[in-house]
Amino acid sequence: MEYRAATPQGAAGRDLIPPGQPGASRRAIIIPVILVVALLVVGLATALRASLPGQERRAGPVLAAGWLVVCGLAVACSHGCALPGGVVAWSGVFAGGSDVVLLVPLGLVAALARTPRDGSASLGAALVVSGGSVVSSIGAGWVLLALCRTPQAGRRHAPDMMALLLLAAGSRLPGQVDYLLPGLCWLATRGLLGLSLSLRVAPRGLRPFHMADIAAMIAAMSLWARLPAGTAVADMRWGGVLIVAGCLFYMTASWRALRAPDARRVLTGLAGGTGAIIIMLAGLMLLARADDLPGMAGCAGRTYMLVAGLLLAGVLAARALDVMEREAGALSLLRLGGLGVLMPRLSALFALALLAESGLPPLLGFSIIWMLLRLLASMPHAGGLAGEVPLLLALAVLGVGWAVRMLALVRIVAVMLCGRPRTPRGAGAADPPVRDQWAVLVAGLPIVLVSIWPGWWLALMQGAGSGAAGGWAGLAVVALTSPDGGAALHPARLCLFVALVGGVVAVVRWLACRTPTRQVAGWQQGAPVVPPWMVFGDPLTQVGPGNPARMLLDMAVAAPARRRFVRDYARSLWQGRRLVLAGAGRVAGAWRGRRLAGPVVLVVACVLALMFIAWQGQG
Amino acid sequence: MAPFLAAHMQALLLAGWHMALVALMAPVWIALLRWMAACMEGERRPPDPLAHWRVLRHAWRQPGVRSAAGAQVTAVAPWLGLAAALAAAGLVPSFCIGLPGSDLSDLLIVGGLLEMAFLALVVTALAAGLARPGHAGLKAACLGIMIQPVLLLVCVVLGLCLPDGTLAGLVRQAHVADMNVVRVPLALVAAALVLAGVEESDGTALRLFATMLEDLAGPDRAVALYARDLLAVVWMMLARDLVWPEGIVEPDLMARSWRGVSLLGAMGLWAGHMLLACGCVAGLRVFVVSAGRQHAGWRAGLALLCALMAGVLLFAGRGAD
User: Fold this and answer.
1) CB count in 10 Å sphere of residue A337
2) DSSP-assigned letter for residue A529
3) Cα(A77)–Cα(A2) distance, rounded to whole angstroms?
4) A480-494 average pLDDT score
5) Which one of B19, B56, B102, B109 makes the best mutation probe of the A interface by having the most chain A beta carbons within 10 Å?
6) I need a labelling partner for A325 at 20 to 30 A (CA). Which of A199, A293, B53, B160 fits?
7) Confidence band for A587, pLDDT divided at 50, 70 and 90
8) A-chain residues within 8 Å CB-CB of B78?
9) A224 contacts A131 by C-beta, under 8 angstroms
């Protein structure tokens, strides 16, 4: 039985991600029954594990195996293999597109998840990926709820929920409110991707990073990938807006990573940067679709799938942090230190994840930056200098964001892995038992493989090998190409080259440094002896959290001018608030003493919005 | 089969010669650069090209002592920096193209590897957890990290100038096309890279680097110093390739035996150009980015401005066409 079907009438152009072959018609994938059954079984097992907390050890491997089966089924389904059991009859409930393959990274994430909350979020994300428009919105709302650890956090996601509701309603009216959908999708995925223009790093503004966040990002990717096509003008405008917004989101997320007070929140900032790249790619895909540039659309689709692969670096980092937290205590950067010596193997794996996230060669982050750069350079230009200057400015903003991200990585390496431990608990940390080390190593294997052979990952995901040859035929070609096909990147060759040079240097080191280097207990520099958990001796000059950010700000603006600006800003905010309150008090004098409950306001707003959509639909 | 093998042997031979040349000459260029800067500041002394080699040898022969805090990181990080700098040096052509891995000589790859070498040196300073080098390392990272926006802008500008964005492609294009059309943008790009990447062009950054590495001893110190020199030299080589791509030859030793002579000429040209590049960097250090007299972000801002101007000039030229 062939599960690849022609695009249904009325759903033409529903996928933002084009299939592998440039210029080929878009396709929908009908979900087989066996995949739904597997998801149901996995869901039941997750619920059972949550209700029977003592059965962790037995339920864990079963769940992991179930999710791996889901991965395999998703690959088979997307490659058109015949699966027993037929197809799901309710095409509106379960209707996948090219993004069904996102079940592959999601399955890997869920298989390595350990807490019920992570499992629940993964299940919600699976609903998003495999469901129709309404079911996917329900699934996204579920993931949002799973991300919230407190009721206050849940209230903050109320606008996201409303946007999801409107998105579901809008996608049931194809062709009527399509010009609004990118904006609604932006609002709906704001919480899932951790996007924010806020620079604050307070606990309520930045949640700690767990596997659930990766599942949420996959759910958001799926929502973006199934965005219906609007008019060319609307798509073009939204594309430009999304690219600019993505650059700004990237910079603010990097800044939050630089200022975050603990390791998990640093990773949340880094993941927010990846979310910003997703927004940028969605904008580029909209632009390519509006301008009918199949080469650029194909390249953007491939980069989208590479970003899905980069999320596996987050899996490795999250697993390593779980073990570190168990061994060394709370992951506050004010308390950590010296883990590079105390737990060298785990630190090396964590550093590998950070290197992949950093965008430095030769790992996957670099391939994504390379592709993104080529995509931005191939954007359709308005012509003349005025049309090009926004591109240059966007690149400058993106580059500054990248620099800040790198500094955040330097900071976390400096504070966590370098130096000496600062607390007795930290000083007692050591590499975990071999079994746990293997678990982290297994979590790191996918990102290494995807980094070396991204072409194979693309062939696995959607047969988007390298543009010329799709499917498994594309396995022979492992290069990533630019939209115009002029430039090519060979990640496997790059990895081989770097490994070769590194090997030569390692041999030279082994031959030249035969005399062992003497280690001394520590340097005192004339200061009194400090206990081993006081790291740098002088707390005023230590590499503590916050210092690099201040150095950067000093580079941009001198400290007195900055203080003056902040004072003026706070004063203007205060005056503005007073003005607004005074005006609102006069206007709303009739409402004095009669306050409406927040949920009532939300419901009224939703009903009004639905009425607006229905009215537009009739028109 | 035989020509195929011979071509590979030739490429390997040239790569070995290129690496040996760059590796041996890196401390020489740095010594000459410092001599030129000293002369520009008014000091009068004869040049000593081997001065830096002697410093490295002295550091190498000292007994190795390492702080127990971060000892494993201190043991690995300088060598990691050296490996990254050597990998970048292998991708930047000096006197000829056609080396193995020339299809990897994308500017973003080279810049990324050099950035990795720089960050490895910063981590070396941070590894022991000492206040003074750690603070200097972080400050140097804040100053040096601004190469990233410059690199992105430069890559887009080069992507518009070149067919495949690699240095080998640039050299091939220089041999068949008139480069004067894009000479000024390319020179601005080279200036931006030198300003943002070469620490030797800034007295403050140079002092910070000295503070970063001052507590290292023995082979660790020698390797870190050498990696730092190599880093600066590879950035200068990159800038030189962008400004004078015609000076690099495409060898075909078997087809025409006289090409060996042109290889020697290209090597001489490379030496002359590198001397000129050293003079330019010394001039930047003394006259443009003077130590202690400018704001901390001056160098990064100037580099960013150069990269933006290169893009604007290129686009303006295209618009005029």
Assistant:
1) 32
2) P
3) 9
4) 86
5) B109
6) A199
7) low
8) none
9) no
- Residues of A whose CB is below 8 A from B160: 377
What SS3 state is found at A165?
helix
Asked if pLDDT for residue A313 goes beyond 90, the answer is: yes
Q: Where are the domains of chain B?
A: 2-320
Q: How far apart are CA B264 and CA B144, in angstroms?
A: 36
- Which among B195, B202, B198, B197 has a CA at the least distance from the CA of B305? B195
Judge whether B82 and B223 are in contact, CB under 8 Å: yes
**DSSP string spanning A343-408?**
SHHHHHHHHHHHHHHHT-TTSHHHHHHHHHHHHHHTSPP-SHHHHHHHHHHHHHHHHHHHHHHHHH
Among A35-39, A127-131, A177-181, the range with the most confident prediction by mean pLDDT is A127-131
Nearest CA in chain B to A541: B131
State the Cα–Cα distance between residues A66 and A52, nearest whole angstrom: 18
- For residue B319, what pLDDT is reported? 58
When pLDDT is averaged across residues A589-616 and rounded to a whole number, the result is 70
Give the distance from residue A537's alpha carbon to the nearest chain B alpha carbon, in angstroms: 7
Q: Taking CB atoms and an 8 Å limit, are B308 and A407 in contact across chains?
A: no
Quick one: closest CA in B to A344, which residue?
A: B72
Report residue B253's pLDDT band, with 50, 70 and 90 as the boundaries. Answer: low
* ipTM entry: 0.93
pLDDT, residue A470, reads 47
- How much is the pLDDT for A345? 94
Which chain A residues touch B227 with a CB distance below 8 Å?
none
Cβ–Cβ contact A493 with B under 8 A? yes
The DSSP 8-state label assigned to residue B179 in this structure reads G
High-pLDDT (> 90) share of chain A, %: 30
Query: In whole angstroms, what is the distance from residue B45 CA to residue B65 CA?
Result: 35
B320 contact A CB<8A = no
pLDDT bin (cut points 50, 70, 90) of residue A79 is confident
Nearest CB partner across the interface for A497, out of B87, B115, B312 = B87
Distance of CA A76 to the CA centre of its chain: 25
A93 touches chain B (CB under 8 A): no
Shortest alpha-carbon distance between residue A608 and chain B (Å): 45
Q: Is the pLDDT of residue B245 over 80?
A: yes
> Hey, are the CB atoms on B67 and A400 less than 8 Å from each other?
no
Write out pLDDT tens, residues A374-387.
898 888 766 666 66
Tens digits of per-residue pLDDT, A532-559?
444 444 444 444 444 788 888 877 787 7
For testing contact with chain A, the best of B22, B142, B211, B234 (most A CBs within 10 A): B142
A399/B150 CB distance under 8 A: yes
First to last CA, chain B: 47
> How far is residue B108's CA from residue B151's CA, in Å, rounded to a whole number?
7
Strand, helix or coil at B65?
A: strand
CA distance A297 to chain B (A): 19
- Tell whether the model's pLDDT for residue A529 goes beyond 70: no
**3-class secondary-structure state, position A519:** strand
**Cβ(A323)–Cβ(A297) below 8 Å:** no
Q: Specify the pLDDT at position B271.
A: 93
Determine contact: B47 vs chain A, CB below 8 A: no
Give me the amino acid identity at A216. A
B319 touches chain A (CB under 8 A): yes
How much is the mean pLDDT over chain A? 80
The verdict on B279 touching A (C-beta cutoff 8 Å) is: no
Chain B contact for A399 (CB, 8 A cutoff): yes
User: How far apart are the CA of A547 and the nearest CA of chain B, in angstroms?
Assistant: 9
Query: Looking at chain B from residue 67 to 86, which residues have their Cβ under 8 Å from any Cβ of chain A?
Result: 67-73, 75, 79-80, 82-84, 86
Among residues A62, A105, A480, the alpha carbon closest in space to that of A316 is found at: A105
Amino acid code (one letter) for B186:
L
